[in-house]
Amino acid sequence: MTFRDDERRAPSVVEGLDAFYAPRSVAVVGASRQAGKLGHDVLVECARLGFAGSMVGVNPLADGERVAGWPVVQSLADFPQAPDLALVAVPARATLEAVSDCARAGVRAAVLAASGLGELGGDGALLEEEIANVARNAGLRLLGPNGFGLYVGPIGLNLTGWRDIPDGRVALVTQSGNVAIALCRLMRRSTVGLSSATGAGNQLDVGFAELLSHHARSVDCDAVALYLEGLRREPGAHFLSALEECRDAGKPVVVLKGGRSRVGRRSVTTHTGALGGDGRVWDTAFRESGACQVGDTSELVGALEALRAIRSRRVRGVLVLSDGGGDTVLASDALEEAGVPLASLGAETRTVLDRLTPPAAPRAEGQNPVTLDTVGGLEDDPRLLAQCAEVGVADDAVDAIVVSGTFGGYRSLRGEELEVVERLATLHRAGTPVLVHSAFASDDEGPVLGLRQAGIPVYGTVRGLAAALRAASGAVRASTPLPRAGASMCGALLASVDAVALLASVGVDVPCVAAVSNDEELDALAPRMPFPVCLKLEDPAIAHKTDVGGVVLDLGPDAVAAAARELWRRFPGRQLVVMPMFRRGVELLAGLGFDATFGPYVTVGRGGVTAELDPDVATALAPFEPDEAAAIWSSLRCAPLLRGWRSSPGVDISALASLAAALSRLGVSQPGLEIECNPVIAYPDGYAVADVRAVQGRG
């Protein structure tokens, strides 16, 4: 990926959404004479930006006036030729009539600005459906409503009402106008800006998948930033395919996902009417499709800056240059926690850096990081920083330079600092990324401004820099796409015997399980029991039957009847499950789930009755093969225990992988099925499924 800062030009036309991103003519329905109204401000802004096409306002009260030089007419019918695009800047109650007028006039696409429609439910949702039907019947594409609007920088089109949008090579797609404004403000003090900004809003028609696909093929952006809360009308598989399309086109996608918390998911429903989905499944979907996920707007901008800096290079090792011992320690901690490795320097590099380092400064093992503190350090001559960086880039192990400390703060040595900026910029342009953390990152002049103008990102915290590098590296290391599945759900708890039969149907090694309702059935079963056995209360609704005293373990032939009678006394009329006892092993879990957006997925992790105390799980979208499943098991924190810990033998990871892959096949063949095997007792020579709980179509 290469970010470019080209001059404004007419964009290439991409079939499908060209009426939005390359319109030749635009109508503003709801044009206004009053400044501060959207229908006024967009006309003024597009005139200021020099919109390359024709533009006209529409207002029934118009009387031949002009706004910002654009003509204003009374009706779309006054157009000699239908405009490609319309901004419908009228209240919610008037939107249906305005969209109907657009449909009759032959408008190709419309941006709906109003809020107070489907996101409110009730009458608003009904009105939104009427609008959708009118547009669908006329072949009119809709963006929004309840969105940020549309900005297309290369042609000077701004239908958002927000003026302060920084130019750049990032395409923003957002469900929130406030988030878009926050990003614009942050980008003003960064090395990145926007080629376009699109408010998806309620996704009444055009959704995230189609927008991503457009940007994957557009020549006007190098990366995509997403803020989304959920998908509304499009299948999750289409969204994932579009993410993969961006990845394959060399355009990293950085995602800020809203609605991850329980309260946040409720807010998603009221805000945009979208289905938030389960956070863990979204995380898996982003990871498997090559998108990198961030936690807030600052991290999003930071990740985009890091991506621009590293230019899709793999960062295998960084050289850290610091002007203070504390910054050296904090930078080392932050980079290690983020999984960004320090470069292992060659002997010649170490020798030269040791000679350049002030005599009294501390020296790290391997001479990385380098602390340029004390007498003779950067406080005396900041140009020492450039010298060390120039030495570092000559080492093949150094993929990036990280500067951490107070660069930009040596006021009495401003000339020397500005020289350092030029020398670092030369290294950066030549191909070795330079990223800077500085206590003076908020400065808008001097050396810090010079760094940003050279494309070198400057972060206010070293943790922010490390997080940005981690996110950028994650976007570069995209995984192989997998086929997707999805379906509808119905809803019923399954008996243990039926759940075990489902597992057996896909080759899972399951125990002999039988259900009994009385003494006679228990007596008839006794000759075939593999003693010792356990008795369990047959109630799929109870996840942990030990909590209610519904399990009796290690029963021999003489004890099983008495134990059964006691359980029936305490739980009259209930069935009991009889199954073999298992030897001790490592207790794990393996489960199949179903997400309304992305379809079936498999979760594996630590199991047993304490699984919820310290969740150690990994999730993957179905289907997948056993070799991929082995990698999922190996990603757990407890993986060393599975491989063999101290004197304990390892378990059969190959068998566990086959179990997980079988669950993934079951999820595709039985859409909507959710099933949990917990515990799965793992051994060096296989596994035993000790308990099963299944739901057919819980949704």
Would you give an account of this structure?
With 699 residues, this protein is an alpha/beta fold. The chain has 4 domains: 288 residues, Rossmann fold (3-Layer(aba) Sandwich), CATH 3.40.50.261; 164 residues, Succinyl-CoA synthetase domains (Rossmann fold); 69 residues, Dna Ligase, domain 1 (2-Layer Sandwich); 111 residues, 2-Layer Sandwich (D-amino Acid Aminotransferase, Chain A, domain 1), CATH 3.30.470. 36% of the residues lie in helices and 21% in strands. The chain has 22 helices and 30 strands. It has a 7-stranded mixed beta sheet. Helix 5 links the parallel strand 10 and strand 11. It is flat and about 95 Å long. It starts with 17 loop residues before the first helix and ends with a strand. The N terminus is likely disordered.
How is the topology of this model organized?
Layout: H1 18-21, E1 25-29, H2 38-49, E2 54-58, E3 66-67, E4 70-73, E5 85-88, H3 92-105, E6 109-112, H4 122-138, E7 141-143, E8 150-152, E9 157-158, E10 167-174, H5 177-187, E11 194-199, H6 208-217, E12 223-228, H7 236-248, E13 253-257, H8 262-272, H9 279-288, E14 292-294, H10 297-310, E15 318-322, H11 325-337, H12 347-356, E16 370-371, H13 383-393, E17 400-405, H14 414-430, E18 434-438, H15 446-453, E19 458-459, H16 462-476, E20 492-494, H17 496-505, E21 514-516, H18 519-525, E22 533-537, E23 551-555, H19 560-570, E24 576-580, E25 586-595, E26 599-606, E27 617-621, H20 626-634, H21 639-643, H22 653-669, E28 673-683, E29 686-689, E30 692-696
Helix pairs in contact: 3-4, 5-10, 6-7, 10-16, 11-16, 12-13, 13-14, 14-15, 20-22
